[in-house]
Specification:
Helix content: 25-40%
CATH superfamily of the largest domain: NAD(P)-binding Rossmann-like Domain
Number of strands: 12
Structural class: alpha/beta
CATH architecture of the largest domain: 3-Layer(aba) Sandwich
Number of domains: 2
Order of helices and strands: EHEHEHEHEHEHEHEEEEHEH
Strand content: 15-25%
Radius of gyration: 19 Å
Largest sheet: 7 strands, mixed
Distance between the termini: 31 Å
């Protein structure tokens, strides 16, 4: 039986990136829908679950994408609410590439440091990738400083992450609206992950932490100026500023492996929800 992936994209045009990856991951048929809202979900899900018997539903799956992560999460909620009993298919959410990118970044860091008790800083921590990187780190026992130019947004993001991983998660909101606050937030950390928007520098040359505490720095922005000054997009465990550094393209290979593997995993059964944590676990198996 042919494997069908139904792409629900919240943007005006279905992501070409996600479509190419689906094809490269071995999907037989790709049905792509654009501008999908929660009101559209029920009929699309019914089309997925009522066309094949329960034993064959593992050959149909749903991928939720688009640039708006909140909109994607609203689709996921509606998709789950439409399923009932055995009438369901597996679902993956990777709006804005946030889950696969965060998983790849944290996995690269795990090659060099132990997360339990680690002091970590996530710059642009209220963005889609930053929040998910912070979530994965906190889940694994790190002391996470979640930084934003707005302390209020950082506090809100910390609360949202604690609601997912547990109230005992070690998350601290930090403001980075000035050079002084950036330096204060980065003092004494062993890991920095920068998940900022394209072309936004988050750490200047003169703001890199001094001393030997910082072991790993990961910048997920490839567009000049990069997020961490001095880090090159192709860097892959390259020493800069006395620190092992990864650039966006250096992490990108891992992201692509995770994305393709997760697409393939959808067709193992009809009852999977591949979200941030599930996608990270798939990455661990590959690493």
């Amino acid at each position: 039986m042919r494997r069908i992936l139904i792409q629900l994209d919240t943007d005006a045009h279905p992501s070409a990136f996600d479509r190419v990856v689906a094809v490269d991951a071995g999907v037989d048929e790709l049905f792509s829908y654009a501008g999908v809202t929660p009101n559209d979900v029920e009929s699309l899900v019914h089309g997925a679950i009522f066309t094949r018997g329960p034993a064959d539903l593992k050959n149909t799956a749903i991928f939720i994408g688009g640039s708006d992560v909140a909109a994607g999460e609203a689709l996921l909620e509606r998709v789950n609410a439409t399923f009932f009993g055995p009438m369901r298919v597996s679902v993956m959410i990777d709006s804005n590439g946030s889950n696969t990118t965060a998983a790849a970044a944290v996995l690269r860091a795990s090659r060099h440091v132990e997360f339990s008790g680690l002091d970590a800083l996530v710059l642009a921590g209220t963005g889609p990738v930053g929040q998910r990187a912070a979530q994965l780190l906190a889940k694994r026992g790190a002391n996470v400083r979640l930084a934003s130019r707005s302390l209020e947004r950082a506090e809100s993001a910390c609360a949202a992450i604690k609601a997912k991983v547990g109230s005992d998660a070690k998350l601290t909101a930090r403001e980075t609206s000035s050079s002084a606050t950036v330096e204060a937030a980065s003092d004494g950390v062993a890991l920095i992950i920068a998940g900022g928007a394209a072309g936004v520098q988050l750490l200047a040359d003169d703001q890199w932490p001094s001393g030997e505490a910082l072991k790993v720095a990961i910048d997920l922005n490839a567009v000049p100026p990069v997020g961490l000054a001095g880090v090159e997009p192709m860097d892959k465990a390259v020493e800069r500023h006395g620190t092992l550094c990864y650039g966006a393209i250096g992490v990108g290979g891992t992201k692509m492996k995770i994305h393709k593997a997760a697409i393939g995993r959808l067709f193992d059964s009809n009852d999977q929800i591949l979200d941030t944590e599930a996608i990270y676990r798939i990455g661990e198996e590959l690493d």
